[in-house]
Structure formats: structure tokens, C-alpha cells
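Preliminary data (for renewal application), AN7 complex.
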Amino acid sequence: MPHRYTGLVEAYRNRLPISAEARAISLGEGNTPLIELDNLVRDVGFGGRILVKYEGLNPTGSFKDRGMTVAVTQAVDEGARAVICASTGNTSAAAAAYAARAGITALVVVPDGKIAAGKLAQAVMHGAVIVQIEGNFDAGMRLVKEVGETSPVTIVNSINPYRLQGQKTAAFEIVDALGAAPDYHCLPVGNAGNITAHWIGYTEAIGQGTPACAFCAGDCRAPHPAMTDRRPVMLGFQASGSAPFMRGGPVADPDTVATAIRIGDPQSWEPAHVVQKESGGWFDELSDEEILDTQAKLAEREGVFCEPASAASLAGALRDIKRGKIADGSTVVCTLTGHGLKDPEIAMRGALDHIVKVPAERGAIADLLAKKMA
Ligand code: AN7
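Predicted structure:
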């Protein structure tokens, strides 16, 4: 039987609060690979498994597509003609693409500078109205909420509960792929929408509802058959210069090389604490240097290229394995939230050290190869 994968809304319609008649606005998102990190596990001498959920392989290159297909499908079903978001980059890329697909307007509010080139390029190409404000993500978010109260436009940031519903499907895919939930699940944390969405997904996967879910609020009236009998310990990692969960409150002027998670006032503050408490997990922070080192190590040792923010999940996991906070023998899943090509400037910083200039002669290249193989 021919089978064309047509995205999350079709794949999980019976687990999403979307009407049976709603036309799915999809780009074939989801169904991303769960890659086993054999080399790195050997390098660090870990007796368990580390797998990365490579969300950078979604259509616009980040996990935001999971949330956006559901949020835009619902918005269009309700008759919306425009969507709006504040964004550090990936949400705006996804909103722009799905709005283009639906034939509606996307207005994206981005911080002044500090947005990765690839993400801005996407918003431009998909024809979004791009508004650059004199302020950071948090200021943009406040502005978008105000506009949403008075103008006929649907907010597609993760405060839109349909976003988290779409993003919960990543947990379903992981449980499907492993046959059970992993022992630990590590994510980079900005607004904390994604870690909350994963917890909703894992909780539904054991046949229950969760207080973090805006639809069932812990009292799921239509529980689905359990797919697994346990949930992972959830670990959330922030960049040190932008770590409100570590400081115990908002950070006024967040700064990090991982611009995707340059967020000082997380929108899912309370739900994320529910996740931490219910799962027995923790938050922690990583320096920019640790984040970039891990991004490079993953690319060099495993052939997997993620953007800086995404590397925070693996950097945290590797450190907690080393410290013994993650038990040896465990199965650990790290979400790689975005593709490395999103932020070419970061990747190219070290390029001059990597590129060797030689005359266009066979001998020069043969010499180089011989040196490398020696
Ligand atoms: C690559 O695009 O908030 O904790 O405006 O792009 O759910 O916020 C991006 C967030 C992690 C954090 N990794 O997820 C935006 C935006 C990447 C991201 C996060 C983001 P949340």
C-alpha cells in the first residue's frame, strides 16, 4: 500500500483537540529521527544509551512546526485571517511558513539584532510582516499580548494552548520508537513551553491527564489507552546568562550566544515547575562555552548539526552523567530543538582555522590527505 506521510494533525488527530472536519495546515512535520549517539557514549564511558530527537529535521528546521501546524489549523478553522507572534527566530520562521501555506497573514515581532540569519531569511522568504522592535523577546511578548487583546489576530506563541498540543506529539513518537518512555528526557528551556508539552505527551502516554494541560487540566475525560507504564525524569537546561529558572525569577537583561533561548521572563513558568515536581526532575544552567563545545562535539563525532540552544540539552546530559546525577545504565533522550544551519554565523566563527588554502594541484591535496591519515 502506498503511504504518504502527511504530518501531525493527520497522524494524531484522535489525540488532538482539533475538529474532525478541520482542514489540516501541514508541511509534513513530525516523524523526526531518534538517533543513537554511539560515539559520544563510548567517548564518555557511559553504560547507558543517549539518543537525540533531531527536531531540526522538521520542515522549517525546528520543533516549532509541531506546535504551529496545530495552532494554525485551529486558527484557520475558527476563521482567523492573521496570526501574530513574538520570537527569538524559530517561532517566526514556523509562523511565516504555516501562514503562507494557509494563505493568511503572519506578523512577527523580533528583537533588535540577536536573531540568527537563517531564521530571519525564512520569515522574509515566506512573506511575513517583520517588525523589529527596540527591545528583547520579553518586550515583544508583552506587546503581542496587548495587540492580541484588541485586534482580530490569533497569537501563535506557546501561550496558545494548541501549540503545546502539537508539541506533545514528540513524546508519543519517542515512546513509539523505544517501546517505553526513556528514563530521562533533557530539553533546552526558554519559555518552557516545550518541556511542558513533552510532559503533557508523556502523561497522556500513560493514559492520564496533567494539570499542565489547558484542555483537561489533569482531569482528562477521554484518556487514551496507555502506550507505556512510566514517565521520564524531565531535565531543563538554560544558558547561564539567561537562566530565570535558576535565579528564581525573571532576568531583566538576558544574554547568551544561544539566541533562541535568550528569554528572561518565561511564559510557562508555573507549568514548568509542575513538570519538575511531578517528574522528580531539575533545572540547571550551562555557560556559552559549554554549549558551543557540545554543539561542535556532536557535529564532529556524530555527524549531527544542531543550533547552539539545542546543544544545551546534550551538554547538560553529559555533565549530569559525569557527575553521577544521571544513573549509569539509563536511557537518556535529548531534544535537539533546531537545525545548525539556522545560525551559520556561529558555525563559521572557527571556519578560518578549518579551511586550508592550497594551489589547485593534485600533489598538494595528496600531501594534505597523507598528513591527516598519518
Ligand atoms: C532552538 O522562537 O521562543 O522552552 O521565539 O528556538 O519552549 O521556549 C524559541 C525557543 C529551544 C526553547 N530551542 O523552547 C522563539 C522561541 C530552540 C528554540 C527553545 C527555542 P521553549
